[in-house]
Design goal:
By secondary structure, the protein is an alpha/beta fold. 24% of the residues lie in helices and 30% in strands. It is built from 6 helices and 12 strands.
């Protein structure tokens, strides 16, 4: 990993650049991700993210914390938050922004237990593929304190396969339609492609049920996105 994402965050944090991150996927054209969006305040966040932060309680783990905007809001509210990301640049930015507990770490290497685990900004992305959802959910389950909760958002991207007549052109022989290759570039430098998973609620619900987890739909967003709360039965 070249940590292009981390470089962009560090540049923005230190006033060195106003360039945007360019993203694309295996089924969509290039799109612009303004780096400023990753530094958004609570007021600038989508309602789904605001709701997740309102529901957060106790000791919190913010997975894939990025520039740390969610963690900062909770820390300012008086909660203890551990913020983790695989991007070294992102964690450096989190520390510069005043986060007390920010670590370069993969979620599968986490072993502490928490009252709330946050997976926001399409939190199911880190599962990468449908075949890995159970592995990740089992691990997340092991990190929950009694009465703990996982708050995760994702999107059902079936709409991206819709044709003009309202039908769908999903190849039933292919992998699950939410499995995408995700490409990032910044200042002309390309990151290695990542596997990224968008998970519809019913598929998440089924995976949770098989593991003895409750999965509750908390809120639906304006564009096929949703917030779910997962807890141990």
């Amino acid at each position: 990993m070249n940590d292009i994402f981390g470089k962009a965050l560090l540049d923005y944090q230190n006033g060195n650049s106003k360039e945007d991150i360019i993203t694309s996927t295996s089924i969509s054209d290039e799109d612009i991700l303004p780096v400023s969006y990753l530094f958004r305040s609570y007021k600038e966040m989508p309602k789904i993210e605001q709701k997740a932060l309102e529901l957060s309680k106790g000791l919190v783990l913010d997975v894939g914390c990025g520039a740390g905007s969610h963690s900062l809001y909770l820390q300012e509210k008086g909660l203890t938050v551990n913020s983790i990301d695989i991007s070294e640049g992102a964690i450096e930015v989190c520390k510069q922004r005043g986060l007390t507990n920010a670590y370069v770490k993969d979620i599968l290497d986490e072993s502490n237990t928490y009252d709330t685990i946050l997976l926001l900004m399409n939190g199911s992305g880190i599962f990468q593929e449908v075949s890995q959802v159970s592995k990740y959910l089992s691990h997340l389950k092991s990190l929950l304190k009694p009465n703990g909760q996982i708050l995760i958002d994702s999107s059902d991207i079936k709409y991206m396969y819709e044709d003009e007549d309202g039908g769908f052109w999903i190849d039933t022989n292919a992998n699950y339609y939410g499995e995408l290759d995700y490409f990032i570039s910044y200042k002309g430098e390309q990151e290695q492609p990542m596997k990224w998973l968008y998970l519809d609620f019913n598929t998440l619900y089924t995976a949770c049920t098989a593991l003895g987890l409750q999965c509750e739909l908390i809120m639906e967003g304006e564009h096929f996105d949703y917030l779910a709360r997962i807890a141990v039965n």
